[in-house]
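One-letter codes give the sequence; the fold follows as tokens. Both lines appear below.
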Amino acid sequence: MSSMKILPRQLKKYRKIAELTQNEVAQELNISLQAYKHYEAGRRVPSLEMATKIADVFGISIDELVGR
């Protein structure tokens, strides 16, 4: 499966494990709710820097975030 399909699924999975709303994650990342929703919907791919920040919010590694 391509990473374009895996990442959105992983974002939602780890957000739910962390018991966070999309808005709470967006606030932690200092981005708009709409921007985060685009990541989770697969309409945009976060930069490596943003992916690192997302992984930090969820307390996981980049590898876990991308399904490795």
